[in-house]
């Protein structure tokens, strides 16, 4: 409480005894609010003008009756009104007093404000209060009236409106409109998604299929009608709920045809263009002795045939025959392929293009690769026209929107990555996303579609894949099988009937019943505009009695160390897909097989421990291997942030566990069987006592032995135990030495220090790696020579964002996190002749490439690429004395590679084969005749790499690799 000065006390006394009316000038008075919200303490009010003071107060049930007084001096000597002013509880009010008349005004705060404009026929639509003085409304202007415009209306009667003249915007766009009631400022920010229209018809079971936006008012969809329902017909749906559809009656077309359907959202005009006729097409070639074999129509005029060429005739070749009589054939000359290979052949009847993708063995042995991991949107901006903010990204300035980098920019900088020596890029998910902060790609709404915000005119995902392959680089696509965005997966919504009125209790035609006993579905469920308040709305959806509608898991009680970690939603904006439902699993398989067909070389699988290993082994891994070949590399993120190998001694959610095949049979086929089996599988693997072990990573003496992969699951893993211990290299090395026996083959593990999610244990608040540079160098020296596939997160080559928190969501600008934009550091160009071999670097890129860690990584890549034992070798520490020191060997029909490695300190190797050993770092030669070699190493991160009959010194000396 504020103390009262003597003059005020005198004035109060005079008021008490005098019959004269005395007015104290308001400029010299302090006024205080006292009431139930502040326990009747004195809270000084704000002077608005010469005669008005005000305060904003929230009443939250503090007393039986919500009430207050205004106290002139804060000491109860003069307070108004005589009786407490009673208000309605659980509301916020703006309270003001006129100091001349003592009149008190109480206004519910915030005031209600309304949007009125061309999109809603100038009706009043209440805006959303964001807090303080800010209000918001999202509106789509769709050519209702010209020009497109709006105003903000206080009382919904036009008596107080802003601005005085209507606020004009561009038509056929969606805007987030904000209004400051204090300043009356209005902003209109164009937001994603733009206005969307959907195709629905007999060809897609009347489901929603998003049309492609060609311009502000033109949309396109290509589809094939193939006898699904008679007559063949369709409609165009605005919101995906039949509330606005064109035409009023279905649009009929001829069946067994391919059409390009175009829709003008201004005029609602629909045009159809016939692109082809659905009829048999035939494969003829050397594998089938030029006989006719009908190809499979896979939709939209594409036909497929899988053919294996086994030396039947030379050269191996084929053609596509329309009628089976050679009268119309493609190409005019036979299509030649390499022999003794299997191909997926796809023919487009519209363009007559033939696409041939080799199946099986195309990835080779992925241990030969090194991986550069990047977030596409944060790497390099090649096209500013596709830059976009996120709904929740208000803290990111316009100059750095969350969706910034793109495929075009990545293609432009592939040579930079190759100059560092990396042979593979791992990119964050490319599929269509929808959430408040979705720039990272892990919130899919459509797994089958590439998000347009990555693409540019003439630059698609296929363009990126082809550009990488042209450089001899491989593409690893990050995929998410566990969950979708907070709106679910738009291709996996319940199969609602096509009627105008949706009855949640009975849905005709489909014989479905949806019950909602808890009444949790929002009233506007079918017409929801993306909004964070509905973050888990799909989770609230009630399941149908048919298996097909148990698309999502609905478990609420997630236990991080219990079975529901695999059946519950891990976050409010990640709706959990029921991967035990064959419908869901097959949808995901079909979606990601398409990317394999495009030429993706490997998958990194997100959130693996949230799906049962049994599900992976019975569904996803066999399917992806069948499509991509047995060598198609798959590695998963089993995020076990523990210093030891086992996650709380629970194998079923531990990193090594997922590298093993099943040894016990479980019922599998229906959803009910699969769900029961995965639960039983969890219970059967609740202790480490029965887990298998392997020596596939170990040399026997000095000898390489053929690994036993008969029980290999086909999925490798990110080495989370090493990662979690990489605060220093010694800890990471030691956890591997003690834990590698639990993996089926630890030489296939992917190793990294930090990532887009996590730093090693011990880094405060999950910072990007913040240890001294020589610690970084030591970690890298171990990673590139020890078992496993090394992976570097973008920017680590210059200690980018060192010490900054990696991910804080939309709570600070991305520029202040570990996911900042990297493009400023790689402006410029470079000429690359081979991996790690470059010249003519210019601009900021030249500075970046010259960084001590960049040069260290470059040379480590060169050494690793030159020594097969460092890529694929088994290892041993038998006969080795020293800190981080080991021997490795790899042998096949054409190779025998043996190497001795000592990192950061000297080591002696006893009992090794005699011969000439050459250090790849210094070129030092040691002739071993007595089975012993001593390596002298000085300097943290420095090392010796003695290769038996080695090629000599590789690369140039740098800060850390030197004599």
Describe the structure.
This protein is of the alpha+beta class and 963 residues long. Among the domains are: 6-108, Immunoglobulin-like, CATH 2.60.40; 114-190, no CATH class; 198-277, no CATH class; 282-359, no CATH class; 870-948, Immunoglobulin-like (Sandwich). It is built from 13 helices and 51 strands. The strands form 12 sheets. Strands 40-39-38-37-34-33-42-41 form an 8-stranded parallel sheet. Strands 45, 46, 47, 48, 49, 50 and 51 form a 7-stranded antiparallel sheet that branches. Strands 2-1-5-6 form a 4-stranded antiparallel sheet, with no helix packed on it. β41 (750-751), α10 (773-785) and β42 (789-793) form a beta-alpha-beta unit. α5 (582-598) packs parallel to α6. Residues 1-28 and 494-548 have low confidence and may be disordered.
Write a brief structural summary.
This protein has 13 helices and 51 strands. Mean pLDDT is 87; it is low at 1-28 and 494-548.
Offer a few descriptive terms.
alpha+beta; 963 residues; disordered N terminus; Glycosyl hydrolase family 13 catalytic domain-containing protein; Immunoglobulin-like; metal ion binding; 14% helix
CATH class assignment of the domain at 6-108 = Mainly Beta
Helix content: 10-25%
Q: How large a portion of the residues is in β-strands, by DSSP E?
A: 25-35%
**Compute the gyration radius: what is it?**
34 Å
Across the major sheet, the strand order is 40-39-38-37-34-33-42-41
Describe the main β-sheet briefly: 8 strands, parallel
Q: Say what the CATH topology of the domain at 6-108 is.
A: Immunoglobulin-like
- Going by helix content, strand content and strand pairing, the class is alpha+beta
Terminus-to-terminus distance:
74 Å
């Amino acid at each position: 409480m504020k103390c009262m000065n003597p003059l005020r006390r005198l004035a109060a006394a005079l008021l008490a005894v005098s019959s004269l009316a005395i007015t104290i000038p308001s400029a010299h008075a302090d006024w205080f609010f006292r009431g139930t919200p502040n326990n009747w303490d004195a809270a000084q009010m704000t002077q608005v003008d010469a005669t008005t003071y005000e305060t904003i107060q929230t009443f939250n049930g503090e007393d039986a009756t919500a009430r207050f007084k205004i106290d002139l001096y804060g000491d109860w000597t003069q307070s108004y009104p005589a009786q407490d002013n009673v208000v309605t509880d659980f509301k916020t009010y703006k309270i003001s007093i006129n100091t001349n008349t003592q009149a008190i005004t109480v206004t519910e705060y915030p005031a209600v404000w309304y949007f009125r404009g061309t999109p809603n026929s100038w009706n009043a639509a209440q805006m959303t209060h964001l807090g303080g003085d800010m209000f918001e409304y999202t509106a789509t202007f769709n050519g209702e009236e010209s020009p497109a415009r709006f105003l903000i209306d206080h009382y919904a009667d036009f008596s107080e409106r802003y601005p005085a003249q209507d606020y004009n915007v561009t038509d056929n766009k969606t805007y987030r409109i904000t209004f400051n009631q204090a300043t009356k400022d209005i902003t209109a920010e164009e937001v994603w998604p733009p206005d969307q229209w959907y195709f629905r018809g007999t060809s897609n079971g009347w489901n929603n299929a998003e049309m492609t936006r060609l311009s502000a008012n033109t949309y396109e969809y290509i589809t094939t009608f193939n006898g699904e329902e008679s007559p063949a017909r369709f409609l165009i749906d605005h919101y995906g709920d039949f509330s606005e559809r064109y035409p009023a009656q279905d649009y009929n077309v001829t069946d067994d045809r391919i059409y390009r359907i175009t829709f003008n959202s201004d005029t609602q005009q629909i045009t159809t263009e016939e692109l082809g006729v659905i009829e048999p097409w035939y494969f003829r070639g050397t594998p089938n002795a030029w006989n006719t074999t009908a190809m499979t129509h896979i939709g939209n005029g594409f036909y497929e045939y899988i053919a294996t060429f086994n030396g039947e005739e030379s050269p191996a070749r084929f053609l596509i025959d329309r009628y089976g009589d050679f009268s119309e054939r493609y190409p005019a000359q036979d299509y030649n392929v390499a022999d003794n290979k299997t191909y997926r052949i796809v023919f487009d009847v519209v363009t007559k293009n033939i696409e041939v993708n080799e199946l099986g063995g195309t990835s080779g042995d992925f241990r030969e690769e090194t991986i550069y991991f990047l977030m596409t949107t944060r790497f390099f901006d090649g096209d500013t026209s596709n830059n976009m903010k996120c709904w929740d990204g208000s803290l990111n300035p316009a100059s750095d929107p969350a969706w910034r980098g793109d495929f075009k920019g990545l293609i432009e900088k592939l040579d930079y990555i190759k100059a560092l020596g990396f042979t593979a890029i791992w990119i964050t998910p490319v599929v269509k996303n929808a959430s408040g902060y979705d720039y990272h790609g892990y919130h899919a709404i459509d797994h089958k579609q590439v998000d347009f915000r990555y693409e540019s005119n003439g630059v698609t995902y296929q363009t990126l894949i082809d550009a990488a392959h042209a450089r001899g680089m491989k593409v690893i696509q990050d995929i998410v099988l566990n969950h979708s965005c907070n709106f679910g997966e738009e291709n996996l919504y319940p199969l609602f009937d096509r009627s105008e009125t949706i009855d949640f209790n009975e849905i005709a035609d489909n014989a479905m019943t949806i019950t909602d006993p808890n009444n949790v579905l929002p009233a506007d469920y079918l017409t929801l505009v993306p909004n964070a308040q509905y973050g888990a709305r799909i989770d609230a959806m009630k399941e149908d009695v048919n298996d097909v509608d148990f698309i999502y898991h609905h478990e609420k009680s997630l236990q991080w160390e219990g079975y529901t970690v695999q059946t519950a939603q891990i976050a409010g904006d990640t709706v959990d897909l029921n991967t035990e439902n064959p419908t869901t699993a097959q949808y995901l398989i079909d979606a990601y097989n398409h990317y394999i067909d495009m030429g993706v070389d490997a998958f990194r699988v997100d959130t693996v421990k949230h799906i049962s290993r049994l599900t992976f082994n019975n569904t996803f891994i066999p399917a992806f291997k069948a499509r991509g070949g047995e060598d198609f590399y798959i590695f998963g993120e089993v995020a076990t942030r523990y210093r030891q190998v086992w996650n709380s001694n629970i194998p079923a959610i531990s990193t090594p566990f997922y590298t093993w095949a099943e040894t016990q049979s479980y019922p599998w086929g229906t959803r009910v069987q699969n769900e029961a089996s995965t639960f039983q599988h969890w219970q059967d693997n609740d202790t480490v006592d029965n887990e298998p072990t392997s020596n596939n990573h170990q040399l026997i003496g000095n000898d390489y032995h053929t690994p036993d992969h008969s029980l290999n699951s086909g999925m490798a893993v990110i080495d989370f135990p090493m990662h979690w211990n990489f605060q220093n290299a010694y800890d990471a090395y030691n956890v591997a030495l003690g834990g590698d026996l639990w993996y089926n083959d630890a030489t296939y593990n992917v190793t990294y220090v930090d990532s887009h999610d996590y730093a090693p244990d011990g880094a405060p608040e999950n910072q990007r790696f913040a240890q001294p540079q020589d610690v970084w160098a030591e970690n890298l020296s171990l990673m590139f020579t020890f078992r496993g596939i090394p992976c570097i997160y973008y920017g680590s080559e210059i200690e980018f964002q060192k010490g900054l928190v990696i991910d804080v969501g939309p709570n600070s600008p991305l520029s202040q996190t570990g996911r900042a934009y990297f493009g400023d550091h790689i402006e410029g160009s470079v000429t690359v002749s081979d991996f790690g071999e470059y010249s003519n670097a210019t601009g900021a890129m030249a500075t970046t490439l010259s960084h001590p860690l960049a040069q260290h990584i470059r040379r480590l890549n060169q050494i690793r690429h030159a020594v097969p034992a460092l890529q694929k070798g088994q290892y041993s520490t038998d006969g080795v004395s020293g800190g981080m020191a080991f021997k490795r060997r790899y042998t096949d029909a054409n190779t025998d590679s043996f190497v001795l490695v000592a990192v950061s300190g000297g080591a002696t190797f006893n009992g090794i084969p005699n011969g000439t050993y050459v250090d790849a770092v210094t070129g030092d030669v040691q002739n071993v005749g007595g089975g012993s070699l001593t390596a002298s190493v000085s300097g943290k991160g420095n090392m010796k790499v003695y290769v038996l009959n080695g090629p000599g010194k590789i690369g140039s000396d740098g800060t850390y690799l030197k004599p």
